[in-house]
Amino acid sequence: MLKYKHFFLLPGLIVLVAIIIFPLLFTIRVSFSSWDVVKPGLDWLGGKNYERLFVDLRFWEALFKLSLMAAGSVLIQYLIGFSLALLVWRDVIMKRFIRVLFLVPMMTTPVIMTVIWRTILHESLGPANDIVRMFGFEHLTWLSTSGMAMFSVILVEVWQWTPFMFLLLLAGLLSLPKEPYMAAAIDGAGPLRTFFSVTFPLMAPISAGAILIRLIEASKMMETVYVLTSGGPGTATETASYYIYIRGLRDYQIGYAASLSFTYLIVMIISLTIIAKVMTRKIIRD
Amino acid sequence: MAMIELSHIAHTYEPTAVTPAYALEKLNLVWNDGGTYALLGPSGCGKTTMLNIISGLVRPSQGRVLFDHVDFTDFPTPKRNIAQVFQFPVVYTLMSVEDNLAFPLICRHVPKAERQRRVREVAELLNLTDKLSKPALKLAADEKQLISLGRGLVRNDVTALLMDEPLTVIDPQMKFEIRRKLKKINELYALTMVYVTHDQTEAMTFADTIVVMNEGKVVQIGTPQDLYNRPQTTYVGYFVGSPAMNFIKCTIDDGKLQIAGGAIPVPPGLSIPAGTENLQLGIRPSNVKLGTSRCEQSLRGTVQRVQEFGNYRVVTVAVKDELLRLKLAPGAEIPALDTWVVLPEDRICLYADDELLAQK
Q1: Omega into B111 within 30° of 0, i.e. cis?
Q2: How many other β-carbons are positioned within 10 Å of the β-carbon of residue A127?
Q3: Residue B356 near residue B230, CB atoms below 8 Å
Q4: Which terminus of chain B is more exposed, N or C, with fewer CB under 10 A?
């Protein structure tokens, strides 16, 4: 039975319906239509868009490349972020200054920084190849060969988002209890053994949380690719969201893009849920 | 097995301050080989600091730490042959119980066969044998604390076992069991054991010698009996014993102690220097008796309150402006209102400026 207290939920519910529920349901409906630039409108196409999507290799490849770049960049961010956090965790000179310095990339505007990175990595004008040549190497095709372009996208992502990982992991390290370290010292454990027996297990829940947050963020990877490589060379660095953008907002195949979006959403929900479950179950079991 | 000596030890956590506050004020202490000691005092009195100085986790701001007359002040923790158990159980979360117990031996590169033998021996002593293959994280708090203890015992180089409020997170019924095991360990290995606690019952039942601390200072060192019967300061009187010792202001007049409107003889053998001020009479609640008629040692009072504690009852009697508490047997007869309270002279302690006056 509705009571007056339930009406207090209305403001939140209205916002939720307006910005999430309605667009989601509308996208699902659009995905069953042939809405495009020639024939805009909600007709009924049945499952044709989904049939087309199922055999659209470019989309599945984009999903695969996204997984590769997201997993690669988040793993590297974790390793570097953890190392930096360990570096400034204990007493080092200018600890506060270094901590702030490490956070600077996160405070910059991602799109602007990607433009700067594109300039740096420019094969004939950018300073990156000047530095490479200085060390006597051949100039590198930073953005024009598949492998290197993917590496460059990961490099920019790592530069931009490692500070976030660093911040989460440093907060975690600072909240660790002292007793296990005292016990390890008394047991005679050296720094390496202390790290693997105390720090790493204690940090496991925080690490899992940080990795999940970054994976969710990285699964939406788009602006770096858009500015740095435009998905190129060819479709070498095309991510799922960038492909959906091309189909929907460049080719105006709204109906097909909606089916891509919905499928992308389902794939992401399933895969991230599995990853989260596996990580938390491992931590809880251990 | 070692004699531990703290020589002119003092410690501050703010060494660069102009007037640093000392967590531990300058003191000299000797812990005898194989003795069981309890460090008793309220939170923040410097107990843990003292323990960490002995184990090397804290380097003292001043003074030296000697083990069997050898200076160990600058020796790192692993080289001190000390085991320490902390307030909260510490287990290595990714390891099994067996690996946890073996960890100190692995760090010291003890051969596998010897390691296994020691682990099984200690597991048997601590009743952990059937749990050796289980993940340490899955055990209950008391079993985890036993693992912490076991990691100390598994080493054959340990000479002293330091325990920092180890039973805080343990269920009351398990506390007794673990204390019994600690006693057994002391008998078996003859380790010097130092036990930090703010629970006087724990201190009294565990240790042969109790060190009472307050605000970074050692207030009294003695056996449980000494502390109970002859507290050196009013602080110890308040802190040790339940209910706390009774303290009543008094003066000396006509060779008698003038207390709360009455007078009783000065206990024999007491030398009270002339001009002594702030005199207080101290007597344990269990030593005060109820009388049916006036006698030389009695004062007139009125029963104010009776509290039942099951195996004893506490009676509060108002003697003029002062309140006296009596600890009586459960069946003891208590008068309805007016009564006589008797202060046996051999049980009276006299304090001047909160310090016990010497008795010949």
Answers
A1: no
A2: 12
A3: yes
A4: C
- Structure ipTM: 0.78
Q: Concatenate the DSSP letters of all residues of B74-107 into one string.
A: TS-GGGG-EEEE-SS----TTSBHHHHHHHHHHH
The C-alpha of B150 sits at a distance from chain A's nearest C-alpha, in angstroms, of: 11
Identity of the residue numbered A141: T
Per the confidence metrics, is the pTM higher than 0.90?
A: no
Q: For residues B280 and B354, is the Cβ–Cβ distance under 8 A?
A: yes
Q: Which two tokens mark A96?
A: 């506060």
Q: Is B252 found in the same domain as B210?
A: no
The answer to whether the Cβ–Cβ distance between A188 and B55 falls below 8 Å is no
* Beta carbons of A188 and B93 less than 8 Å apart: no
Q: What is the CATH number of the domain that holds A214?
A: 1.10.3720.10
Sheet of B22-31: strand order equals B22-31, B4-12, B62-67, B70-71
Query: Which residue of chain A has the CA closest to B105?
Result: A187
Read off the pLDDT of residues A67-123 as tens digits, 9 standing for 90 and up: 999 999 999 999 999 999 999 888 778 888 888 888 899 888 989 999 999 999 998
Residue at which a domain ends, from B207, B233, B259: B233
Residue A28, domain member (yes or no) = no
Instruction: Tell me if B217 sits within 8 A of B234, measured CB to CB.
Output: no
